[in-house]
């Protein structure tokens, strides 16, 4: 490592995979892939972003063709790309608005065509000033978010410059394009236009109406300058300012985003601002303003040349987004899980062990672990975050070797990530979906060799669920835990036939399972009374989770208390004592072996359907993941993270993020 963007964190690389050009020309002539582009030093007001998706704009190919070379001195090497959606992996010392792990989006070039950056967004990592970014709306995927920044900021700034306001009419020339479709939506939902007209080709007229246009004009049949009706504002997105002026009312204004745009037409070059995205966030979150994606979206990173050539035709409807990012070199490709898509590698970076023992003694890192062939019922996932569970270190120690004969093993049960490929029989998910789940269907019986502590993993469709839109990947990864989290808690209630009006005591209420058992008892099963045990320092957490009676196990023996319960949920391995705290006819559930009868002991069968069933409780905020204060820990610190988990001092869940090379 050297002094660069990752100088204080060995997790973040000094170099990145990137597309670049070293001379001006057409994409197919000048674009090349560099697997080792150097990252510049991170400035105090900047953030380093792991790029998840990047959208294309006409300025990308115009810049590449040399149209702005008088303002754009960056050659011999330039990485194209303005728009980004991704995850923050490092921040400068003056950054206060975003933090590591935040999902962000923005246009990273502040001044539209002047002083453009040499490092754009069509790379594995990029750098941007904090002021140019905004937090990604939780209801938008990375693909959708990447489609927004430059286009909507341009749409918004043009409307502001034209002093557009409620009650005015507008004509949008090129209403089905990247900027035009946002102008229509902003005019309708943000500015309160009295009438919206827009032009497009015949086949896109219905789309204009769906976007909110009152009058869809077929430019192949009608000329805007010949229309009898005139408008307060004409917004030209395609370069017809002279004709636009003829459609303006007396005293009205024409705006164009295509040079030269001579007066009296208002011409401007965008100044990117993250504050615009923040201002418009409510309209994205309530669904009034939506990005329009071209049917070819997403386009794999490996097909960037074809994608740029496509937008040069001006036939795109809405935005073209490149995803997933990055691509391996062609030499890495072979027949495997990615045999039909050259943007997905045949090998992945992974932690593994080839003998049983303590993490510090047996865990090793392999930069080239082979990916298996994708089966018809499976999906390939780009791993974003992974949570740890006690089963991870117990399996590593060899406690389950009678039912787990596999060595070497990539550990990890739980994943939150993005689908990058689907098998032939997969119906619930598509490429680009954000998913989470426990990839081992039967907890201790024949768990998989390929776990989740790697850059890519494979899982059966039935084990996964769509990530709740209001949860980050870090939060989502903390939920679907093999033996210690939500599914275990829920199965325990089902086994014990727990229902509304009953009382419950949770042993270990501040832990991974216990914290969810409390919340499920409160919000899903409507318990009449909830008690839970924890150490002195964690009693307030129990109250915050919804506990009526927090019990300090360092001062009170729960079995000696006068109150008895319909159900005792043992998450720590005190089944014998638990029986002394139940009512006559009550039940004890334990998740810690051996769990002798009459205690109800069970091992989890992972099901994505459980996560789907409980999704409304996450989205409403009634059930929330509890993260240990040390979360997130970088992928490079896996050994330390597992060792910490072994101390049993964690409060809530320990999550590794981001997942990349140590």
TrEMBL record:
Record flagged with keyword NAD = yes
Residue intervals of the Enoyl reductase (ER) domain: 26-322, 358-656
GO molecular function terms noted in the UniProt entry: oxidoreductase activity, acting on the CH-CH group of donors, NAD or NADP as acceptor; zinc ion binding
Under InterPro entries, the record lists: ADH-like_C, ADH-like_N, AOR-like, ER, GroES-like_sf, NAD(P)-bd_dom_sf, Quin_OxRdtase/zeta-crystal_CS
* The keyword 4Fe-4S belongs to this UniProt entry's keyword annotation: no
Known Pfam families for this protein?
ADH_N, ADH_zinc_N, ADH_zinc_N_2
The entry sums up its family as follows:
Belongs to the zinc-containing alcohol dehydrogenase family. Quinone oxidoreductase subfamily.
Q: What is this protein called?
A: Enoyl reductase (ER) domain-containing protein
């Amino acid at each position: 490592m050297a002094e660069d963007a990752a100088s204080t964190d060995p997790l973040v690389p000094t170099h990145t995979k990137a597309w670049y050009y070293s001379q001006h020309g057409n994409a197919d002539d000048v674009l090349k892939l560099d697997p080792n582009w150097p990252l510049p030093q991170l400035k105090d007001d900047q953030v380093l972003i792991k790029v998840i998706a990047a959208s294309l704009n006409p300025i990308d190919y115009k810049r590449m063709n040399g149209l702005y070379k008088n303002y754009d001195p960056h050659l011999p090497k330039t990485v194209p790309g303005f728009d980004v959606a991704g995850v923050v992996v490092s921040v400068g010392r003056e950054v206060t608005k975003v933090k590591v792990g935040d999902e962000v989006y923005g246009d990273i070039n502040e001044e539209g065509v002047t002083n453009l950056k040499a490092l754009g967004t069509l790379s594995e990592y990029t750098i941007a000033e904090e002021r140019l970014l905004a937090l990604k709306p939780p209801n938008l995927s990375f693909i959708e978010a990447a489609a927004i920044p430059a286009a909507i900021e341009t749409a918004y700034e043009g409307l502001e410059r034209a002093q557009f306001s409620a009650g005015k009419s507008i004509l949008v020339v090129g209403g089905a394009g990247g900027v035009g479709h946002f102008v229509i939506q902003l005019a309708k939902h943000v500015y309160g236009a009295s009438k919206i007209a827009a032009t497009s080709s015949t086949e896109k007229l219905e789309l204009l109406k769906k976007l909110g246009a009152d009058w869809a004009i077929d430019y192949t049949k009608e000329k805007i300058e010949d229309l009898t009706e005139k408008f307060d504002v004409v917004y030209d997105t395609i370069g017809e300012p002279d004709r636009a002026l003829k459609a303006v009312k007396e005293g009205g204004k024409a705006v164009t985003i295509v040079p030269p745009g001579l007066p009296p037409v208002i011409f401007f070059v965008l100044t990117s601002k993250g504050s615009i995205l923040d201002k418009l966030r409510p309209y994205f979150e309530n669904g009034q303003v939506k990005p329009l994606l071209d049917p070819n979206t997403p386009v794999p990173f490996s097909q960037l040349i074809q994608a740029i050539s496509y937008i040069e035709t001006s036939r795109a409807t809405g935005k073209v987004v490149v995803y997933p990012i990055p691509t391996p070199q062609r030499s890495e490709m072979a027949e495997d899980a990615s045999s039909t898509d050259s943007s997905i590698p045949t090998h992945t970076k992974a932690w593994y062990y080839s003998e049983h023992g303590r993490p510090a003694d047996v865990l090793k890192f392999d930069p080239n672990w082979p990916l298996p062939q994708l089966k018809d019922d499976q999906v390939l996932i780009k791993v974003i975050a992974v949570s740890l569970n006690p089963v991870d270190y117990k399996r590593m120690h060899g406690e389950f070797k009678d039912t787990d004969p596999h060595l070497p093993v990539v550990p990890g049960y739980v994943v939150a990530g993005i689908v990058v490929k689907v098998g032939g029989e997969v119906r619930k998910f598509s490429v680009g979906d954000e998913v989470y789940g426990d990839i081992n269907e039967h907890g201790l019986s024949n768990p998989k060799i390929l776990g989740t502590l790697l850059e890519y993993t494979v899982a059966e469709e039935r084990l996964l669920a769509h990530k709740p839109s209001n949860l980050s990947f870090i939060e989502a990864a903390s939920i679907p835990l093999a033996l210690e989290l939500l599914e275990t808690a829920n199965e325990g209630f089902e086994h014990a036939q727990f229902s509304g009006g009953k009382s419950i005591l949770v042993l270990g209420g501040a832990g991974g399972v216990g914290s969810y058992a409390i919340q499920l008892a409160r919000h899903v099963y409507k318990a009449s009374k909830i008690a839970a045990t924890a150490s002195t320092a964690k009693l307030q957490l129990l109250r915050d989770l919804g506990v009526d009676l927090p019990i300090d196990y360092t001062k009170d023996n729960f079995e000696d208390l006068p109150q008895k319960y319909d159900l005792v949920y043992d998450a720590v391995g005190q089944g014998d004592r638990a029986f002394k705290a139940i009512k006559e006819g009550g039940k004890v559930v334990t998740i810690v072996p051996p769990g002798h009868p009459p205690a109800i002991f069970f091992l989890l069968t992972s099901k994505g359907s459980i996560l789907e069933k409980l999704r409304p409780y996450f989205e409403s905020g009634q059930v929330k993941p509890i993260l240990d204060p040390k979360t997130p820990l970088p992928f490079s610190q896996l050994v330390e993270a597992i060792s910490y988990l072994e101390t049993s001092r964690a409060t809530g869940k320990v999550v590794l993020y981001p997942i990349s090379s140590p």
